[in-house]
Amino acid sequence: MIPGGLYYTREHEWLRLEGKNATVGITDHAQHELGDLTYVELPEVGVELHQFEEAGVIESVKAASDLYSPVSGEVVEVNEELADNPALANAEPYDGGWLFRLKVQDAAEIRDLMNADEYRNYVGEEA
């Protein structure tokens, strides 16, 4: 499940651009590889992140993994529901399981991300 209209990173985060804001989450592939999520540490609202900078941590029954920001920007919202229910990112990785929202600094950074077809090929090469 790799929806079109999103942008993807090599670390398996997705980004949905919504005007000057963007929503970030982990891909279905990432949640499947990690297994049942047990803990999510998200950035604080107001923090400035740079493209590909570490933004948090996600832990599962299998492993812990760093989360990265697909683009530079200011964190304007985090998904508070994940604190009590990290498995929401397993069940709905592209909907209710989003991680955080950014006010994008430089939309040109999108060029450094993959579209759905490119990400599908990237995941296929990893397998």
Task: Note the run of SSEs as H and E.
Answer: EEEHEEEEEHHEH
Shape: globular
| Total domain modules | 1
- Low-pLDDT ranges: none
CATH level-two architecture: Beta Barrel
Please give the largest β-sheet: 6 strands, antiparallel
Sequence of strands across the biggest β-sheet: 1-2-3-9-8-5
CATH topology: OB fold (Dihydrolipoamide Acetyltransferase, E2P)
CATH superfamily: RNA polymerase II/Efflux pump adaptor protein, barrel-sandwich hybrid domain
**N-to-C span:** 15 Å
Assign the CATH class: Mainly Beta
Radius of gyration: 13 Å
Structural class: alpha+beta
| SS summary, helix count | 4
How would you describe this protein?
The protein has helices at 28-34, 81-84, 88-91, 116-126; strands at residues 7-8, 13-18, 21-26, 37-41, 48-49, 54-60, 64-68, 73-78, 100-104. It has one domain: OB fold (Dihydrolipoamide Acetyltransferase, E2P) (Beta Barrel). The two termini are 15 Å apart. The model has no long low-confidence stretch (mean pLDDT 96). It has a six-stranded antiparallel beta sheet. With 127 residues, it is of the alpha+beta class. Strand 2 (13-18) and strand 3 (21-26) form a beta hairpin. It is globular and about 35 Å long. The protein is built from four helices and nine strands; from the N terminus they run βββαβββββααβα.
